[in-house]
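Quick question: what would this complex look like in 3D?
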Amino acid sequence: MMMYKINVDRLPELYAKMAESRALYLPIEKNDQVEFHPWNADACVRLDKLNTAKSAKDLFFPQTENLMKFKMQGKNISIEENRDPVEPFVLFGVRACDVRSFDVLDKVFLADPVDTFYQSRRENGVVISMACHEPEETCFCHAFGIDAADPAGDISCWMVEGTLYWKPLTEKGQALTETVSALMEQAGDQDQAKVEESQKALHAVMEKLPLYDLDLTGFDGDHLLEKFNSEKWAKLSEACLGCGSCTFVCPTCQCYDIRDYDNGHGVQRYRCWDSCMYSDFTMMAHGTPRKTQLEKFRQRFMHKLVYFPSNNDGMYSCVGCGRCLTKCPISMNIVKVIKALGGENHA
Amino acid sequence: MTELIKAKVSELLANQTADRVLGWKKGEFFYDETPAVFQAEELDDLVYDGFSAPNLSKYLIKESKKEGKVIALLKPCDTYSFNQLIMEHRINRDNVYVVGVPCRGNLDINKIREKGIKGIQSIKEQGDELIIETIYGTKTLPREEVILDRCLCCKGSQHMVADEVIESGEPAWEAKADRFEMVTKLENMTSDERFAFWRGELSKCIRCNACRNVCPACSCLQCVFDDPASKVQAKSNADDFEENMFHIIRAFHVAGRCTDCGECSRVCPQGIPLHLLNRKFIKDIDTFYGEYQAGADIEAKGPLTEFNKDDVEPSIVKERGGK
Ligand code: SF4
Ligand code: SF4
Ligand code: SF4
Ligand code: SF4
């Protein structure tokens, strides 16, 4: 498919055009925090921000959503599906790691039985990714075979010297491109060369990142019990507060809880994100199967690094975005776990 | 400093004053230290510098219930939380040997990043400067520009409790800002402005509960928000009302016990200035019941748990009103 280009100064026009027909979500700064918010003409767009504080998963898998309503009238109960309406939207400026996270979520929510709530958002959303520019020391996407210079999605973008390059990758991406192509110019061979050069430059930077070569040896289904029974979990989990920061900022954490809210004359059933770090996670009549923080902590990492890949052809459910590295109150994170139990420490 | 501390704790372990140490463990990078318990042979990984921010007092609830005695490394502000937990009978004092460590003010990695510093390879504290090596080149920053907010309103370099204090010989860190400045600003807003300020901040909350779980005053065995019978969901903000109420109720619950250690704001992944809620209560308590610093003195009577005849009447709410 053809590549296009547009000068950065004209981006607001591009945003306005896209926003005419659907909601447009971009990294937008509000109260000192950059998140994917709906765009409007006054928004402070921060395409330069490497990663948003929260991931983009909210757009497909919101933190809280309504499922159905039960109404009691005398001895009758009526059931009404009241899912939140989903409209077409564009998600612009997603990094390569977060784009991969959607593949991870797809494995969970689009596998049989399909989660129609997630599915309808996936179908309605067009993902425009953005190649990275100045990666952080906390980035380790490369360990999972993700190329930050060549992000996937429906459309990929590169920002090079004041010009945004735009390349549709899917039919959905092509369809959106057609609605805005009048604003852009077609890119030529020279442009192609410029993009390739910027990719090379990014690769050179990536190689210098301290976690570039993070070694995942030993994290697979074959070493499940050995990893599970490792004595090292005790030390690793010792200071964990059991808060849910790591799980809530993570683009791939996918667990949810289904709850009923009794409003006195009926019940609203909704689902909300859950965290394996929480005391009531998978609570059953007899209690919770993981009573100690060690077991809860271990679950998070075993799921991402062992259970998930062994059930999904080797695909890890971590994409190396580094959010849990910067947000954990006590700086315990997946990299420390990988280094303690994998690579050269994998016995 | 790390070496001084290591020498001291090695000596204390060797002469059997205690059998383990609660301190900070070196991270993967140069700012990501983790609280940890060390045995004598593990001291290599112990570190103490500007990034030793986590307040270790709360860990002593669990640690002091174990057998033996633990050395706790506490910064001056951490000792207030320690005392408060002693007053609340949460820590077994007999099982803790408190070693006070001097503090030059903690460093804020987020402020360093806000200065446009990325791809950090190493950070060195050299006098009043930070030398930061990054994959994009070396940068130098004055230490004072990237001090953690809470430390700008430092309560002082004195340890409120300690079995022993390590002296650094360096000049003591001092407060640079008025602790109630922002509270006063908020008080002077109209209620609409104030509401807009707090909605702006609290709407960022993802309800991860880091603020609650890190808080030394939040030591309930089961938080009311985790009780299914409470009907609220600790893990989701179903609506604005719940979002606001969680924080307001929490602030009420720690009022009079909050030492203003600043951990809530430090750990919030969304950068919400939660300490302002607590400081508002502290300011009001100071005004109504006389100056009181929680955790300064374990003999002191809590202003909200003591009744005096000249205490303000509930009607004060109406008299002062809201603007
Ligand atoms: S690992 Fe860190 S962020 Fe995750 S629950 Fe434990 S303390 Fe919280
Ligand atoms: S585990 Fe951490 S690094 Fe991996 S995807 Fe989740 S937040 Fe990102
Ligand atoms: S982890 Fe990789 S893709 Fe994600 S922000 Fe960092 S460099 Fe970019
Ligand atoms: S730490 Fe911040 S985001 Fe998490 S619950 Fe507290 S205020 Fe909300």
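Answer marked as accepted. DSSP finds eleven helices and twelve strands in chain A.
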